[in-house]
Amino acid sequence: MPYLSVQDLFNGMKDQLKLVLLTPAVPLTRKIHSPEIHRPGLAFSGFYDYFAFDCVQILGKTEIRFLNQLKGRSRETNLKRFFSYRIPCIVVAKQQSVSKDFLEQSIRSGIPVFRSPFRTARVASQVTVYVERAGAPETSLHATLVDVYGVGILLLGKSGVGKSECALELVERGHRLVADDMVEIRAEGRLLMGRANPVLGHHMEIRGLGIIDVRSIFGVGAVLNQKRITLAVSLEHWKKEREYERLGLEDRTYKLLGIGIPHLIIPVRPGRNIPILVETAALTRRLNLMGGRPAKEFNQKLIQTMHSSVQEQEVD
Amino acid sequence: MSTEKGVEKKFVIRNKLGLHARPAALLVRVANRFKSEITLQKGKQKVNGKSIMGVMMLAAGPGSHLTVYIAGPDAVRAMAEIEKLIHNNFGEKD
């Protein structure tokens, strides 16, 4: 599955990296299949046992210097071999000039060459991030995303269970809304990022009130454009036959785009103050991230207490 | 051992770590399936068998003696279930 085309990369990066196309005649239709970048120094020296040709090739000072001193037969064969691969594009860093024969061969092979004034490490890292983002798996979900005490919480549950009302109460209590009803989720590496659908923005539909704009009612401090999701909370109507978590010792996970996040199921029934439960869940999650496991620690203490009282009995 | 409506039975806790969080949760889960009132006693301490914090408060370690009192319409069935759980060492291997 290709991540993006060279044209997409150029459009997205030309301002950021001040990219100039050195081969205007070459179409930018090739696809980039890997988020990694490759520095083809070894290939120039004739090593092709392994060559990551399907990555964006970045020429830093090392590669250009090596090319400039490469002469005669080896230059001819190594470059011929290099240009025989289906390389998506080449980016030259640090505003370096490229020899004429190199450019001619790229044009003939249909490989676009760009140049950037920035240093190699910067070009490499920004290209990697951009390609990875463009190719990141995405999904959208009927849910609500809030930031509670800095913890991105995805509120899940059937329509009408009270996700929006819960989010509204949380906003009222000083937390932030990221998205209501529809959350767009993207996997960035091992992280899940959530944001609002651009059409919906920070609007909410509250039964009995209609559509409200959270940003204009509560101010910019009450909203956030995107947030990393670190906890999933399902709200569901209390089912008598279902047994809910009583201890907090079991770690349940919710899988999204192949990434697991901690998952809590909170039963809803009249009189239960859900926003306070969500706030407490957020704080407990923060405690967990700082290494605290209240349920485990409590249990260990209990076991210790029982152990020492058993020993006392034995002494008696 | 059964009184008019209630039943009473004595047990010895045999699982390795005693009535810690997991076994306590299992016991409370079973207790909550019944309408009867379930009381656990260790020494002088009596607690509600449907309250998880209560059961853990007993700190019933291995070898400790526990008396279970159950009163209500399904007392006999409840006692049978609790007995099974304790005799199976709460499903723990050792």
Briefly say what this structure is.
Chain A contains ten helices and 18 strands. Chain A has 316 residues and is of the alpha/beta class.
Would you write up a description of this structure?
The complex is a heterodimer of chains A (316) and B (94). Chain A folds into two domains: 4-135, 3-Layer(aba) Sandwich (Udp-n-acetylmuramoylalanyl-d-glutamate--2,6- Diaminopimelate Ligase, Chain: A, domain 1); 138-293, P-loop containing nucleotide triphosphate hydrolases (Rossmann fold, 3-Layer(aba) Sandwich), CATH 3.40.50. Chain A has ten helices and 18 strands. Chain A has helices at residues 6-13, 41-44, 61-69, 72-83, 100-109, 120-135, 163-172, 214-218, 274-289, 294-315, and strands at residues 4-5, 20-21, 31-32, 37-38, 56-59, 90-92, 113-115, 138-142, 144-148, 151-156, 176-179, 182-188, 191-196, 203-206, 210-213, 226-237, 253-256, 259-268. In chain A, the strands form four sheets. In chain A, strands 8, 9, 10, 11, 12, 13, 16, 17 and 18 form a nine-stranded mixed sheet that branches. A five-stranded mixed sheet of chain A has the order 2-7-6-5-4. Chain A is elongated and about 85 Å long. In chain A, 30% of the residues are buried. Chain B has 94 residues and is α+β, with helices and mostly antiparallel strands. Chain B has a single domain, classed as HPr-like (Histidine-containing Protein, Chain: A), CATH 3.30.1340.10. Chain B is globular. In chain B, 35% of the residues are buried. Classes of the chains: A alpha/beta (316), B alpha+beta (94).
Q: For the record, give the distance between the C-alpha atoms at the N and C termini of chain A, rounded to a whole number.
A: 72 Å
CATH superfamily of the largest domain in chain A: P-loop containing nucleotide triphosphate hydrolases
> From the helix content, strand content and strand pairing of chain B, which structural class follows?
alpha+beta
The assigned CATH architecture of the largest domain in chain A is 3-Layer(aba) Sandwich
The helix/strand series of chain A, from N terminus to C terminus, equals EHEEEHEHHEHEHEEEHEEEEEHEEEHH
The number of distinct β-strands of chain B equals 4
> β content of chain A, as a range?
25-35%
Rounded mean pLDDT of chain B is 89
Secondary-structure-derived class of chain A: alpha/beta
CATH topology of the largest domain in chain A: Rossmann fold
Query: Could you tell me the radius of gyration of chain B in angstroms?
Result: 12 Å
Helix count of chain A? 10
Shape descriptor of chain B reads globular
Which bin fits the share of residues in helices of chain B?
25-40%
β-sheet strand percentage of chain B: 25-35%
